[in-house]
Amino acid sequence: MSKKLIITIARQYGSGGREIGEKIAAALGIPLYDKEIIKDAAAQGDLHVDVIKKSEETAANSLLYTLAMGSNVFGASMSFGYKMPLNDKLFILQSDIIKNYAKEGSCVIIGRCGDYVLRDESNLLRVFVFGDLDHRKQRVIERHPDVKESQVVDIINKTDKRRASYYNFYTGQKWGKYDNYDLTVNSSTLGIDGVVDTVVALAKEKME
Known about the structure:
The chain is of the alpha/beta class. The chain has one domain: Rossmann fold. About 55% of the residues lie in helices and about 10% in strands. A five-stranded parallel β-sheet has the order 2-3-1-4-5, with helices on both faces.
């Protein structure tokens, strides 16, 4: 496998997207970036990690976004005497970090609009993982036993809504819409390992 390949994974909450990403990275022998993005963005922006975690995947209505829709949000030079909102600063920081990862070589990127940030990459595999609600509920309950079963659906819906709002806000596209991805796959149908096998097989073809 000689070609560089960047795999981005967007996912519904409880679909197993992160575990799928970990297994794909292990199978291909390439790094996975998820929480590392937060740490590196904090270091680069001289911010505390908790500040990024709190603001992550939320989108404030900001002047920067309105202006960026007619320009370029990535590193755009704004000379209007306007203080950049924290959410916008974090998005730009994380985007720069993701681009740096991609320059270094093949990798798996979890969430954070990776498919959009790296849209100009020549060898990019964009994956969206979704699942049936019952399967996602069970997975959340198993992974978070402290969460009451009566609260699970609300947590799933709110988390997905937050992810969708963040993605839609900063990309101008629709989160989960099939034509924003190269592969949309139901982890409830294929199972975690089935999704991994599918993506790994496709990745190997693209990396040859």
